[in-house]
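call fold(seq) -> tokens
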Amino acid sequence: MDTPLLTAELVVDGAVPRQPDMSPDGRWVAYVVAPAGRPGERRLSALWIAAADGSSPPRQLTAGTAADSGPRWAPGSASLFFLSDRTGSAQLHRIRIDGGEAEGLTDWRGDIYDAFPLADGRVAVVAADEPTEEDQLRRAERDDAMVWSEQRGCGRLRWLDPATRELHTAGDLGGRHVVELAQRPDGGPVAVVSWVSRENDPGAITNELHLVDPATGAVDDLGRVAGHAQSPAWWADDGTWHLAYLAEPDPYGGFAVYDTVPGTSASPRDLTKGMDVCPAGLVQVADGPPLALFAAGLDTEIRRLDPGSLRFRCLSARAGLLGSLTASRSGEVVAVLATTAYAPADVHAGPPGGPLTRISDTRPELRKIEWGAQERLRYQASDGLALDGLLILPAGRSRADGPFPLVTLVHGGPDDRYADQFMLGPHSPGQWLATAGYAVFLPNPRGGTGHGREFAAAVVGAVGGDEWSDILAGIDMLAAAGVADPDRLGIAGASHGGFMAAWAIGQTSRFKAALMFAGICDWGMLAGTGEWGTMDGALGGSCGWEGTGPHPHDRVSPISFAAKVRTPVLIAHGEDDTNVPLGQAIYFHRALSQYGAEHELVIYPREGHGLAERNHQRDLLLRTRAWFDRWLGGS
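ret:
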């Protein structure tokens, strides 16, 4: 039988699993299945459940004719709460897993962001206030002026009684925006993480912790905590309740797990200080200490907190990427989304010590494709630092067939990484390029995760420095090994990877083609207009409002080197991107036009920081391959 051809349609028309949630009794995993590429402006998705032990095939619970998301198990493991827009706006619903239709529980006129079942049968709902009569009048009169200080939409904590379907405001958090919560396993207080506002800047760096009594609504403010706080998890040690959580002590400096003891004056304790791996997920276990995912080089580990040493002990390590960790009440069964070199993400379940078994099968149509061989790389930076990454060879070829045209794909973040995972998608087109005859290099330079916080923090205020030399060291290694053709080098990336692509072509003429998707060309401009604001200013070294300049960010902004660009570059951007606004692409386009540099600008309507619409994803895949074919020659 002939090997099927990998087409752009095959890439974008598949399904992807998301948001797994383990039932309290450890028997079932609920998850969401959605199209890889949205067919229109509305994304449809369905709820599925699968037996955690794989004893029965997965079963679809909802029809997939609405946007169903956020499954959360009721305490008895017999039903699920979830959000759905089947009646118009997103509302909270409940469905039994033994059959029957979903029942609507809310008819709220404000945005509902999340829901968390409580031990007493009620549900904690995070929802914005309903529009006032004045709001409705202004809307009717099309008086939609946005007064920045009056922006609405902050998520308030509310209690829902499913029997009466009434929502009541829970305690007074001073108008702060609720982002995440967790109830103490004994039915005690609810730990709440809040931001000062919904805006990422300053919201993400103005985090506070609160305890809310579910019976009285009384609030105990625990005070300010490190930025990007998330995943609160209660645990008990000799009768004393602790509260652990993930947070980032410095912007883009890597996450830590902190532990605090409510009711004491002790400061939160950093439980991951000095570790050479990075926490990537934390989950509460009712009957024991929390479990956590750790990024460990190209692999992922599942660890459990040891109450005696207050350190995380490794239970299992698995090649590839694990995410969205969820656990049963006992902690004896976990579920994750897992992907390896030749297998796309699927739901896996099993004991935290392994093995984990695949229990969903969302992309069976990809199994017959001949993929490029994916190798794990280890090499040294110019200063001797140990680095890792991946190499994908052209499909059906070996190193002996080289040298090949080489495209370097730089990851975003920069606080991200390439694990030994499946690389197929519009923004991670490793195998898409490999099936067209390209070798693909996926480096993990300084600034990324998986090697401890010092490694992650190395580029703060110094982007384009050591991370750039780390990438060059890998390219030089592959050229010296006869894998990369030094006369046919390309570079590409999205977000921070797009910045690195733009940076690279202003530093050297070695690359014959580049792709910059949603990339940064001016760090000061990003600090002033992007949604992360001063946090991006920290990466670039300054914001631009410190004085007349020149500023530190000017030295690390690709726009400052536009006159030196000699590499043809494809610039692609989402029109509605608020993370890295479209102005970054237009600014770089105008600069390159001024100097006569070969380039093309493509803008995708209705898209944000990543492409969601199916036809746009397909277009980017085809343009990416055509651009490199044009300038590198393919094979």
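The longest strand covers residues 227-237.
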